[in-house]
Amino acid sequence: MRFWRRLFDRETGDKTTHPPSEYPIPTHPQMEDPLDIGQRSDIGKTRRANEDSYLTLKSVIGIEPEPIPVGILIVADGMGGHEKGKEASALATRVASGVIVREALLPLLTSLSSDFASRPVHEILTEATAAANQAVSDMASDAGTTLTSALVVGHSVYVAHVGDTRVYYLDGSGLHQITQDHSLVNRLVELGQISAREAQEHPQRNFLYRAIGQGNDLKVDTHFQHLAADSYLILCSDGLWNSVSEEEMVQTIRSSDSPQVACNRLIDMANEHGGSDNITLVLARINY
Amino acid sequence: MWQRTRLHYTFSAESDTMPSSDGRKGLLGRLRGLEEPEEHLEESTTETSGSATHEGSTTTEDPASRIGPQAQTLADAPVAILDESKLDEEFLSPGEALEDRYEIVKFLSKGGMGAVYLARDRRFPSVTKLVAVKEMISTIRDSVTSRISLETFEREANILAGLSHPAIPKVFDYFHHDRRVYLVIEFIEGTDLESLLAEIDFALSQENAVNWAIQICDVLSYLHNHRPSPIVFRDMKPSNIMLRDDGQIVLIDFGIAKVFQAGKRGTMIGTEGYSPPEQYRGIAEPRGDIYAVGATLHHLLTRRDPRKEPPFTFQDHPIKDYNPTVTSDVEAIVARALEYEIDDRYPSAEDMKQDLMRAMKGSEDATTTIVSAPLSRQEEISPLWSFHSEGEIRCAAMVSDGAVYFGSYDHSLYCLDADTGKERWRYATDGGVVSSPCLWNETLFFGSEDQILYAVYARTGRIVWTCPTDGKIRSSPQAEYGHVFFGSDDHQLYAVSAKSGQELWRFSAGAAIRSSPVISGEVIVFGCDDANVYALDVQRGESRWKYQVGKALQSSPTVAEDMIYIGSADMSLYALDLANGWAIWRYRTKGRVISSPVVAKGVVYFGSNDHHLYAVDAKTGALVWKYATAGPVVSSPRLTEEDICFGSADAYVYRLNAKTGRLVWRFRTGNAIVGSPVVSNGIVYIGSTDHAMYALPASP
Questions:
Q1: Shortest CA gap B69–chain A (Å)
Q2: What is the predicted ipTM?
Q3: Which residues in chain B have Cβ-Cβ distances shorter than 8 Å to A184?
Q4: pTM of structure
Q5: Cβ contact (<8 Å) for B582 and A206?
Q6: Which of B:563-582 have CB within 8 Å of A?
Q7: A220: which chain B residues are within 8 Å (Cβ-Cβ)?
Q8: pLDDT digits over B222-246, tens only?
Q9: Which domains occur in chain A, in start order?
Q10: Is A6 in contact with A256 (CB distance < 8 Å)?
Q11: Can you give the CATH number for the domain in which B523 is found?
Q12: What is the C-alpha separation between B117 and B643, in angstroms, rounded?
């Protein structure tokens, strides 16, 4: 600061024409958007309709010493044909987000202290998923959907998951798949019955043993993960992870200027690789 | 033909070890507007062969290689049965006669293809010959497919007609009528095994299950050896196995007209937990039936429904973990039937039947030892030594460097020799010492109900300094970063210098602090009688977050992998996010949780006043196992190698296997145990309210 001041004085030699402030033009780094979210869904190249749905909602609570970003990220991949799949995934997404907003987000945003909603977060997320399940089951068709919801609060992410839509976490140590696919084929691969490559061509590769809309007894997987600074959270439907390799995913994300750019590039990549399914991707960068 | 005890609904059987939290079950019940156990809709057998193929699927019309599990279609949900108007339209009414011979007595059930009726064969007027009439209504719009499914139905009906075995219902007749096809079969009175399992709430005895399995293997053997070509049953599961009143097993639902629905594009949903892995690759052969028998047996003996679990996870759930009365040889038989690789299974149903019969005989000879229920087993264990103080010992001891330190209600803190139990020194205070001591740099710290925190030399017991507070001290101190942290009944949490006792800071909470604090990085966490869990900055004692639970927290928290675990008097164990204090999950018990949890290998262990010791998954809160004692478990468990030790108010010290919860040994003291054990060099040190401190060996 003294250096600046001297420079100042030398240049003009006249202190009175300048503001008496001792402090120069600020040079500290600009504040970045603490939670930068990109999202995109595409019909792909072979399907007649896009049966995927997604929802993102973001908020930043500006308090000292550090603002707390809060985000809701949901992806749902519908199935059932005759556009019923689309209806199912859209319904599931809305219903689930409604519960999460009401039970978790609202208390978070409106309470004055750092007290959170008194209900455990996994219970809230499970309730959201169960409500979605009820709504889709009530649709009186045999449509179903996957449903994966992530709630980000500061450096924590809470996930509720059913189906084969995936959540990945990317940090300095690499890409990690957080959720487990509820597909038969995944199970067969785990057991060594078939190889991962055979899984990709397998006729029953789309069989899920757990999905939304199939009645009661729904078991929901929940996860909790701490998020490092400069890490990424990726939610995507199988249209993406089936078409783009993990290396390509990491490469593209790291080399893109923003999460939205990365989303666009990855969707294009999936289409280039065939685009045989609907492709949906939500990518969040944790900048704090 | 088959009489279901409940029309279409089979209540799911729950066992103690099923990982579902009560909270979610109740929640789902509320969502459905019912307060009943979850209902499971019967899978429909409506499958129409796909004229539209979804990419990659191999649809074939060859019945012998049909693939794919039945799709669970709620569209066929049997709500229609109760709708009277619908009944009139589609179904036959009592009194109507088919072929002028079969007089409908009543409607029995609705399957995927059509209804099943009870009827009387008029050809035998002087007796009431009852038969079952199965109807197949073709709902397939596409006429080509419709004809194919009809032909398939006919072909299978013809095969069935040629079979003769006590476990296979006899086929009497077969005819067309409009667009419907009818099959007249022997009427079987009894209960199917799925309904049976739902009705009873205890585990089936091995005897019954093996008896039925032998009968099933016998009929499978008959089918598999059928000439000219073997018949694969392909649909072995409890709901397809009828138990007649005389104990005879009958297989039903022979996959008649099982034409599947591959018409849906995109992702398919639904699985049949009893099907072998190769079935999903299009392979349907006799040894697949053997797998399914194994899966059925596993379900019968463990009460774990494979349809509710990730597929092919039987290996992860050994039968004995759920049903200790099952013998090893039966467990091995089921395991072999459930081998993933076809070639590793029994080569034939006959081989499996032989093994089962041998096992049956074995248990009759009573040569196999049956593991009895935990409470009746007593391994005698003798203590290495015991030391009697003059007051109740309510705290956990501390062991270090060959010495055991603990406090007693007789106002003293004791130091004993760990090997011999001989007293080395004691320090007398003016109040009961219920907190556990902690050691730092050769100094021992402990609190007393005389409101003072003491620091004494560990070797000699000579006083170094004291720190007075305004309330009884029951919280156990923690030493870290050269400071000692402890709570007092005066509502404060103190941080004092370990060397001098000089106060660094103190924090005011809303009520007495009996829980001991835990330190993780820069954060110190503790519970308070005001029902809050507090997280403070360890350097300045400033609040970072607080989380409110239902009632007082006297259990001490424990930290593992970004999460804090703590029990409350509101009967739940909470798992909180260390970063912000938000509860991630909670596990509800039926009693106050005063015991402090302990975490190891992804499992949280804790006791509850509802008499149980619980083992719960650390990430999800799902129950792994629980063990019942005869009194509240206030003591916190301690882990040692493969085992876990704890005391109960029923006066016993228990040692269980940490993975399965099975008893290794137990030891009886004179009175309730509320303190926690401490393990050092394999020896378990535990105090009791019978005034004694015991040193117990690792094994008898």
A1: 10
A2: 0.83
A3: 271, 280, 311
A4: 0.70
A5: no
A6: 563, 574-575, 577, 579-582
A7: 24
A8: 988 887 777 888 778 898 899 988 8
A9: 32-286 (3.60.40.10)
A10: no
A11: 2.130.10.10
A12: 57
